[in-house]
Amino acid sequence: MAAVGTSPRRRAAYLATAMGVVHSVLALVSFWLMHDAPKPGSPDSAVIAYYSGGQGRTVLTVGIYLLPLSAIAFVWFTVALRMWVAEHGHPEHFLFSNLQLVAGIVYAALLLVAGAAFSVDAAVAALGDGPVDPQSARAFPQFGRMLAVMLDSRMAAIFVMTTAGIGRSTKVLPSWFVWLSYPLGLLLLFGATLQTRFALIFPIWVLLLAVLLTLRVHHTGASRPGDLTARA
Question: What are the TM regions of this chain, as residue ranges (predicted)?
Answer without folding.
Answer: 12-34, 62-81, 101-127, 173-192, 198-215
